[in-house]
Amino acid sequence: MEAVAGVKVEPVVKTNKLQALVLGLQHVLAMYSGGILVPLLIGAALHFTPQQMAYLISADIFMTGIGTLLQLKSTRLTGIAMPVVLGSAIQSVSPLINIGGTLGIGAMYGATISAGVFVFLIAGLFARLREFFPPVVTGSLITVIGFALIPVGIQNLGGGDVAAKSFGSPANLAIGTFTIAIIVLVSLLAKGFTKAISILLGIVLGTAFAAILGKVSLAPVAAASWFHLPTPFFLGMPTFHSSAIVTMIIIALTSMIESTGVYFALADLTGRKLTNQDMVKGYRAEGLAVVLSGLFNTFPYSTFSQNVGVVRLSGVKTKQPIYYAAVILILIGLLPKFGALATIIPTSVLGGAMIVLFGTIGIQGTTILRTVDFGKERNLMIAAISIGAGIGVTVYPQIFQQLPELIRLVIENAVVVTSVLAVFLNIVLPGREKGKSQHHEVIRRTYSNRRSRIGNRSVES
Asked: pLDDT, tens digit, for every residue of 428-448?
């Protein structure tokens, strides 16, 4: 492979099949907490039954493996053929909850399918538009993706249901705080791969602590079946609403921005020089995975940045471990009892993990913004207005309550507001710098240095 100019490429570490299998399991563990978090949050918010939740998580894991395979294998149209792992996009949580709660579950899947088709079709054009997403745009977007979800984490820390008598109880607060403490201690004291899965360890040990307090029930695991092949439209047939489709198309564009950063980080690690056609095939594979997620009633996928950290930690830069990871994910996804294990995680445990996770994502956005020259007034205005509006909409979404529902459903989401404003202001304000080199260097450096503390993409930007 051709080396990236100016980048020192280390020799590729060779592995046998057993070592590759173990490394594949590491990739699964690194992304698992982030992978199951999206279906857990959306399913809980929309009051899915335990049986529905078990299917949702299993199907999501299964389709994650399928989507990862789509990226690994390069064809004439799809596949970036790098050690890429796909997972549920964290930025889709709020808009999908809003769509599902307003228009019904079917509308979520109709909008997801439409967004995937859009990504597939727009891939060639998007690969040529990277200069419209400089660090001031991507940094503002990632900042809001993280911080706008903090209130959800706080609510879950208290128990989830604000109207419940147990909300904010000492037991819930203790469980959530214990989870945060575990994540912090592992992040500060552990090294290598153990540090990389601090979020997962926090969730596991937090659930164990909650079980000691009598807050965990294994009934959903007992009720779940041993085997179930994911079935199209198992939870509902898709319905198509223009407002929901527009919303998810914008969310899909943010995932494409995230994936761009991951692609360049992996190119940096593997010594590969990416072409526009490589990028196009990567975007198309992601779009196809999103279409499949809608058909099988799961949620949109994007390239997971935490697995870049696993590649760095292991030094193994080939695709072989990722193939094993994909197979492991597919096998796990066929076992609803395994998926049901995730449903026993107490809400307060999720809340503690979410505060760390989303806070870390927000800080990652500010890290990107540190590279921006805020001595230039246009950059200051882009960041100030887009971030301010996004956070403001998170706190007071009812500001749009007088607008038609079609418009309101789209703009009540902080990620949508921030991304639209940031891109629009970057285009219309005078003084925009053309060229891609600065942006590519920023995202390459940012994602090469990220660790799996962020659990998605996730977010992904």
From this structure: 998 877 654 455 555 555 555
Which residue in 285, 288, 250, 31 sits closest to 145, CA to CA? Answer: 250
Task: For residue range 124-178, list pLDDT tens digits in order.
Answer: 998 888 778 888 988 898 888 888 888 888 988 998 878 888 889 999 999 999 9
Q: Are 205 and 317 in contact (CB under 8 A)?
A: no
Closest-CA residue to 303 (of 446, 448, 457): 457
**Residue 421: both structure tokens together:** 């404003």
Can you tell me the distance from the alpha carbon of 117 to that of 110, in angstroms, rounded to the nearest whole number? Answer: 11
Contact 288, 333 (CB under 8 A): no
List Cα–Cα distances, 316 to 26, 28, 256, 263, 282, in angstroms. 12, 15, 25, 16, 21
Go through 3-22 and write b for each residue having 16 or more CB atoms within 10 A of its CB, e for each that does not: ebeeeeeeeeeebeeebbbe
| Other beta carbons within 10 Å of 162 | 9
Reduced to 3 states (helix: H, G, I; strand: E, B; else coil), residue 303 is: strand
Taking the CA atoms of 446, 447, 451 and 453 in sequence, report the sign of the dihedral they define: positive
Q: Is the dihedral of CA 317, 321, 326, 329 positive or negative?
A: negative
Whether residue 337 contacts residue 64, with contact meaning beta carbons closer than 8 Å, is answered with no
**What is the Cα–Cα distance from 138 to 128, expressed in whole angstroms?**
16
| Token output for 309 | 């950290």
Cα separation, 108 vs 112, in Å, equals 6
